[in-house]
Every structure is written in structure tokens, then in C-alpha cells.
Amino acid sequence: MATQFGSKLFTETTIQLANTTETIVKGGRHLLPLLPQAFRGIQQIGVIGWSSQGPAQAQNLRDSLEGTGIKVVVGLRENSTSIPSAERAGFTHANGTLGEMMSVIRSSDLVLLLISDAAQAQHYKTIFSAIKPGATLGLSHGFLLGHLKSVGDLFPSSINVVAVCPKGMGPSVRRLYEQGKSINGAGINASVAVHQDVNGFATDIALAWAIGLGSPFCFYTTLEMEYRSDIFGERGILLGAIHGICESVYRWLLAKGVEPEDAFRRTAMSITKPISHTISKQGILAVYDGLSASAKAQFEMAYSAAYHPAFDILWEIYDEVSSGNEIKSVIMAENRFSRYPMGKIDGTPMWGVGESVRATNPSVEIDPITAGIYCATMMAQIDLLLEKGHAVSEVVNESVIESVDSLNPYMDYKGVAYMVDNCSNTARLGARKWAPRFDYMISQQTIPLLDELASPNSELIALFKSHRIHQAIAECATLRPSVDISVQPDLVK
Length: 493
Hints:
This protein is α/β, with parallel strands linked by helices and 493 residues long.
């Protein structure tokens, strides 16, 4: 796939990632004066929806465009329960920055459609009919394209279609933007795609949107590859796999006589604290390199036992996403919610133990077994995405950076299960569906094999140590936000 934006306004930089060349666009507050020029002809940006991304994107763009004359207006359904929250953020009917959803769509030159994926699939025909010709439709997820492909439909030919997909949840997008007001370069990186350009300005509009959100670096993708990697990643290492890994290894440790509190520290907390911190700053290989000789031996055995079973499940997930089956399952599940709403998943004993353990904020070391299984799953996801032709930057962002720099810090603060239940419905449904599969895989395949192996798979370990992704991760680590996300109580509720 091509990896160049072709911007007329923003400077592109070439980087080398795992023997491939890509171009990126560096953001920063010094570029904010260019936004009015990039948003040429745009007088109103309509932010439609107020769930995870809506509040962050509306507020960030409003702040970035202050004094430019470009208005940011939030569009919500009449009598939406989100109206009070939007008003507290300063979007009100009285000042003309809050309106009924369809009215805002009709009057906006750039429509950022941030309602739920299922709602997009349900209402897209009405939304498309309301967007004025020559306007730009902005998406932060490619789900709608996947749905259109499955039903044989297309975006209107009279509009631009672009995507800016922050590599983190909405509260991260807002919090790091706020930190970036005093520290340039703080923000959440974004993947940027131009799916349809009817006036020649779509690329600069998309990049301006990302820069206005505070993204320090913008990576090229396509809308199709984005939704494949994003929906897949949620079901993989970002949410589903980490949940399944924690549950299964925790029970295994209990069966071996480990106390519940110690078992929690050795599983969930080992991942969200030292393993994530190490990967974030030094890369996946550094997790292994930092272990003692005996711990390395345990890591190698766990890695050898987990890699191929994990790859098998991840391959199935990718096929389900790319075929459209996973998208259809989300829509069908949403239709059942009126009768059976989604329940919580943090009621098992492990997460109750975790709440009390986290309250003490203990010092935690890397558990080599947990690390071996977690890293094997992460590497399997990386290998699968590379096989499927995804850009290396997208592979690193969706499999590593979004995990250790955005989601895992919140998991550390409130728990893995809590984090799953505070993502989009698409992500929550995917984690519920596939986490039990990872749990079963580890319990039925990895752990028995771990107990049976006389020695690790030397070929597999050698491939891990020499993998080309380590250079790419090191390069991408230089492109991470200039500060770590500050997780505050008011951001995780």
C-alpha cells in the first residue's frame, strides 16, 4: 500500500521502519496557525455524538481553533442524556454550539461522525442525505466502510470522506492535549486516511483535523486497513487477549497454591505496570533482556507454548473482521440490547482481589511466565498484521503503542475488566466474545504444553530475538507523546 499523504500544506517526513519507508506528518501547537488555511471553505465543524471520542474531539478542536472564526458545534439527538455533559463542557444552545444532530449535519462543512458504530450502520442513509454536497465526512473508525461493503452500498460521490483515528480512548485524547498546552508534543498519535477526495483538499483537511486534536505524529493508512486492524486489535492484545490471559494465568497460579493477592500482582499488575512500562520506553525485547538467566528460561518456555495457539485465534479473528462477519455480529448484538443490555464483566473473584491490591499500590516485578505469554501474543498479532500487508507503523500502533501508552495505564488505575467496560460497544462486544477464547486457549493448550515442554522452541525464540519489528518499535518510540498520560480520578469514572 502507498504510504504518502501528498499534502499541499503540511511537511512530510520520511522514516525507516523494519526495512520499509513511510512518511509521517509531525504535529505540534506551532502548526495551529495553519489550520484555517487547511480548513479552507469550512465555517462550521459538526461533532456528532458525545461518547468516548466526542467530548475530547469537540473540546480539542474548539480550543485549537479559538479566534479563527471556525465554529465547532456538537450535534446530539433531541432529549439525549448527554446534553447536560455537553453543556458542562461549554457547548450550549444559547451560544449556538449545541444543536439537534441532523440539523447540525445539514449546516456543517466538516461532519465528524462519532456516534456508535451500530448507530452509524442504522442511520447512515439519513445522515448521507443530510450532508451537503462538497462537505467532508470525517470518521474516527472505519466500521462504517466495513458495513457499507457488507450491504453493497457506497459513500455519496459528492463528498470528501476522511478518517482521523486517535490511537487511544477519548479521555487520553483530551488529557494529553491539555498537558500539551504547556508541553509541546503531548497528545495521542493518529492514523489518517483519505478515502474520497472530491475537491482536492481532503488530505489537508484530514491532517488539520489530526493536528487540531493534538496528535504529535500522523501516520498514513487506508480506511479499510484501519478498520481491519482496529476492530481486530480490540479483540486481540488491546482488550480481549489481555483479559483472557489474566483470567487464565491467575486461575493457574491459584491452582498451584499461590495466594490470590500475589497471583493478581503476577498477572494483571505485572502486565499493566513493569511489562507495559518496559515496552513503552525500551521495546518488547527489553522485557526479555532485563530478566535473570533463570527467568529468561521461564519466559522462553511460556513464549514457546503460547505463540502458535495465540496466532491461530488471532488469524480467526482477522478473518472474521475482514469478511464482515464481526461487523454484522456487532450490529445484531446492538439490536438485542433493548431486551438484554450488556452486563458488567468485573464480578469474578480476580477483579475483586485486584481492587484491594491496587489500593495499596504495591511494587511489582515482571513475572516471566505472564511476560512470555503476553509477549508471545503481542508478537503473534504483529506477525499476522505484517502478513496481511498492513503498514509497519499501523502494526506497531495497533499492537504495541495503543496498548502500553494509552489503554494499559487506565487498566492499571481501574482494572482490566473495568477498562473493557468503558470502551465503545464494538470493543466491549469484541472483548466479551474473544477473551473467553484466549482464556480457553491458554488453559487448554498453552498451560498443558508449558508443563510438558522439556525445552523451549529454539527456532521460535531466535525469531523473536532477531525480529525486524524491534527496530520499528524503537523508531516509533521516538515518536511517542512527549509526556506520559496522567490518569486522574475525574477521567476514569
